[in-house]
Every structure is written in C-alpha cells, then in structure tokens.
Amino acid sequence: MAASRHADEIHKAVQNYYGNVLKTSADLQTNACVTRAKPVPNYIRESLQNVHEDVSSRYYGCGLTVPERLENCRILDLGSGSGRDCYVLSQLVGEKGHVTGIDMTEVQVEVAKTYLGHHMEKFGFQAPNVTFLHGRIEKLAEAGIQSESYDIVISNCVINLVPDKQQVLQEVYRVLKHGGELYFSDVYASLEVPEDIKSHKVLWGECLGGALYWKDLAIIAQKIGFCPPRLVTADIVTVENKELERVLGDCRFVSATFRLFKLPKTEPAERCRVVYNGGIMGHEKELIFDANFTFKEGEAVAVDEETAAVLKNSRFAPDFLFTPVEASLPAPQGRSESQTKVLIRDPFKLAEDSDKMKPRHAREGAGGCCGKRKNC
C-alpha cells in the first residue's frame, strides 16, 4: 500500500509540475528534456506537416522517437500526450498498420481523439488506424491492451517518470509479439540515485529524480526476458541551476536511446556476415542500426551472435542476407577479431566520446522527454 501511495504522489507531482510550475520550455532547469536534435529525414518531416496545428502546439518541444521499417506494423506509444507522434506514425505504418497511444492525462487524450477524423480524412484512410487510451504505462492490462499484440513499442522519456521501471518493462514485454521491439529514449544516472534526489519534486519533473542507474537497465531487461539493450544515441544532461547542482552532487545524468528486442526462444544464433539489401524508407542506402553497427547497401558486415539473432528474428530479417562464417571473422581496418566484439553499451562513454564541439540545435524538435505533459 505504501508503494502504491508513493506512486500516486509521484504522478500528482509530475502533473502539477507540468501543469502549474512550467509555463514554457524556457522554464526548464536542465536539458534532460531537450537533448541534441538530429536531422529529421524528409519522409518524417513531410508526415509532421500533415499533423493539425492544435495537436502540434500541445507537443511542447519533445522530439520524435521513430525507428525504421514501420510499414504495416502495430505500434504502441507510451505517454502519447496530445497525439502528435501517433499521427506521424499513422502515416508511416499505413492503412494496414495500427497505432495506439496511451497517456495518463485525460485532457491530452481527449485532444488527440478530437482530431482523429480530421487526420484520417487528410491521410486518405477509409478507416481509422489510430486509437487513444487513457491509462498508466505500468498498467497496460488495465487499459485493455492484450498480450503479444504489438510489433513495436515506443517511448520518449516517460519511463523515468514512473517509480516502478521493472513493471513498465514487464508490461511492454507482455504486449510485444515475439520478434518485437521497444525503441525508447530515457534519462539514466551514473550511480544509484540517492533518496534526497528521488524525493525532490522539481528533479522528478525535470526527469532526473526518477532516472534509472544505467547498469540496472540491462539487469532488469534480461531478467524479464529481453535481449541485452542496444545503445543507439546518448547525450550528457546539463543542469542550468546552481541550487539543483548542489542537490545532485556527484550524480551525473545522460539522455540515451536504446533498443530492446523480445526474441522467440530458438536455437542460439551463430556469428555471420550480413548484407543489407537496402530499400527501407528513408534509409535506402544506409541503415544506422545502433552505436555499434551501420549497414550500407550491398556491403558485407561481420556481426556477433547477439546481433545476428536480433536481425534474423525481428522485422528486419527480410532486409538482410545472412552468410555463416567458419572459425573467424574478418576484422575491418586491420583490427583483431576480439576488438570488433566489444560493443558500446555505456551511454556515458558514448556521449563523452561524441564530438563535444558540435553545436547544439534549438530546443524545438530536439529529442527530449517530458514536455508533452506540460498541460497535464
């Protein structure tokens, strides 16, 4: 009961922070919710332009979390807010696909529903391919979401706002089909977050108080049944408030995107060479899969057992040719095979190794977390 009361208090504090404390994104005390923007592919930019202004205006500066190869997929958006991402994804999955958005803020869900007919008509769809639900992301069953019913689950920095991260990931695992993926951005801490930070309402609202220790993600994910997390991007979070810096002390934070795959229980995959066939919309010539692997059309790439299993058993399988290897794999650029097997998993290392001199873009359109809840 105590844990339940604590979770309810956190939810109310987050809603108050984004409903009453913040007036604009300029009021944010950190950049946790506003990470470095990346170029938006043309096909996504075009989809964004089709979203009604009233929906986009309630988005408040969070970026898109859009994986590749979405045609005909069933997608669940955790923390869908006013529905902007859902209406973008609606166009990308097509009329044979489906997108479900779930959010804990009823007024945001109602805004999203209001414009359902408008968007379906604009997209030229005969029947709606989007559904909006009111509910909590750690209680998907209560919202009526069935087991093994989605190909992809996405989340843009909302898991950190939920006290019980394991319950969220457990529910995601349940609703994903075998071969399915959780593609999500979130904030992670460099150590176990102390209680004085966890109990700080502003730091919860800024996506830091509820941040997971980054090493715990792999422990929780694999305990549930996911493959090891695959790191995609990472950026260091900066704090723009001296008082908050004193509270945080030695605890550092990073905003990172990971992929988690739920694979069928099959025989272990073997190392192999893979060749990307090309043709995925927006990634026809090159597929940047994660921080470790970039696949160029027609080019053979040696991959480890873990990567081979993900590619073979997910929606990406038709996009690759697989060739088994014998005793050893060729090492690119003269490196030894053992060197090629060290996968980057630490988001702090990836962020720190990035080009620190690269200018940061304006906050609009940046990949971020929680701004969509500002009118909660």
Topology:
Layout lengths: L1 H20 L20 H8 L3 H4 L17 E5 L5 H10 L4 E6 L2 H9 L1 H8 L6 E5 L15 E7 L8 H11 E14 L5 H4 L2 H5 L6 E2 H11 L5 E7 L5 H7 L4 E10 L9 E5 L9 E3 L5 E3 L3 E4 L1 H9 L6 E5 L12 H4 L6 H7 L23
Parallel strand pairs: 1-2, 1-4, 2-3, 4-5, 5-6
Antiparallel strand pairs: 5-8, 7-8, 9-12, 9-13, 10-11
EC number: 2.1.1.137
Keywords: Cytoplasm, Methyltransferase, Phosphoprotein, S-adenosyl-L-methionine, Transferase
InterPro entries: Arsenite_MeTrfase-like, Methyltranfer_dom, SAM-dependent_MTases_sf
Characterise the protein shown here.
Pfam families: Methyltransf_31 (PF13847). One of its GO terms (cellular component) is cytosol. Residues 354-376 are annotated as: Disordered. This protein has 376 residues and is of the alpha/beta class. It folds into two domains: 1-262, Vaccinia Virus protein VP39 (Rossmann fold, 3-Layer(aba) Sandwich), CATH 3.40.50.150; 265-326, Ribosomal Protein L9, domain 1 (3-Layer(aba) Sandwich), CATH 3.40.5.100. 31% of the residues lie in helices and 20% in strands. It contains 14 helices and 13 strands. The chain has helices spanning 2-21, 42-49, 53-56, 84-93, 106-114, 116-123, 165-175, 195-198, 201-205, 214-224, 242-248, 305-313, 337-340, 347-353; strands at residues 74-78, 98-103, 130-134, 150-156, 176-189, 212-213, 230-236, 253-262, 272-276, 286-288, 294-296, 300-303, 320-324. The strands form three sheets. Strands 1, 2, 3, 4, 5, 6, 7 and 8 form an eight-stranded mixed sheet that branches. It has a three-stranded antiparallel sheet with strand order 12-9-13. Strands 10-11 form a two-stranded antiparallel sheet. The longest helix has 20 residues, at 2-21. It is globular and about 55 Å long. 44% of the residues are buried.
